C-alpha cells in the first residue's frame, strides 16, 4: 500500500513537470509528404537553374508555379497530394508542361525515399525534444528532493531507505543513454538519397551536395543502390 502511494505521488509530481513537444503554430502548414515534396521541388528549381539545366526565365516561372501549388494546398480543406505522381499534375496546371523539366535526373523513388528520411528525421527530433524535457524535469525534481527519504523495495518488501533524488537520477541517466542512441541514429539517418534516382544514379549533371545542404542533410547516401534500396530499410 505504501509503495502504491509512493508511486502515485511520484507520478503526480512528474505529470506536472513534463510537457509534450511543442505543437506547430496554427498558421504553419503540416510537415507532411506534400510539404516535403514542395521543399524538394523548390530546391530542384533553384539548384538546376544555377547549374544551367534550366534557364533563368524557366526557373522564375517554375518557382511561381511551385509557390501556387503549395499556397493552394495550404488552404483549409484543400487536397495535399502525398506522392510524386499525384503532385505533378498540380505543377503542370500551375506552370504548364514545361515545369516537368525540373524532374530531370530524379525519379519518384529517390524523391519519396528522401521524403521518408526527412519525416523520420522530424520524428527523431520530436523524440529528442521529449527526452530533453523529461530529463530536465527529472533533474529539477531530484534537486528539490535531495532530502526526501523513500523506501527501497526488494521482493515487494521495504528494504532500506533511499533518497528520492537518487531514485530520480537513475532514470535521468537512463534517458541520457536513450539520448545518446538518438544522436547516433540521427548521424546515420541524416544523409540525402536525392539524385540516386531508382538504382544506378543518372548521367545528368546534378549537384547532389547542394541538394543535400538545401534539404538540411549532413551529407549524402553515396552509393545510389544503397540510397534507394537498402538505406531506407535500415533499422535504427
What does the model show?
The chain is mainly alpha-helical. It has two domains: 29-104, no CATH class; 106-236, Fumarase C, Chain A, domain 2 (Up-down Bundle), CATH 1.20.200.10. 60% of the residues lie in helices and 7% in strands. Helix 5 (108-144) runs antiparallel to helix 6.
Distinctive features:
mainly alpha; two-stranded antiparallel ribbon; 236 residues; single chain
User: Structural class of the helices, strands and pairings?
Assistant: mainly alpha
What overall form do the CA principal axes indicate?
A: elongated
Q: Count every helix, treating DSSP H or I runs of 4 or more residues as helices.
A: 8
**What is the CATH class name of the largest domain?**
Mainly Alpha
Which CATH architecture of the largest domain would you pick?
Up-down Bundle
CATH superfamily of the largest domain: Fumarase/aspartase (Central domain)
Topology as a string of helices (H) and strands (E) = HHHHHEEHEHEH
Whole-number count of domains: 2
Give a count of the beta strands, DSSP E runs of length 2 or more: 4
CATH topology of the largest domain: Fumarase C, Chain A, domain 2
- Which residue ranges are poorly predicted, with pLDDT under 50 across at least 5 consecutive positions? 1-23
Percentage of residues in helical conformation:
55-70%
Most strands sheet: 2 strands, antiparallel
**How widely separated are the two ends?**
40 Å
Radius of gyration in whole Å, from Cα?
25 Å
Cross-sheet strand order for the largest sheet: 1-2
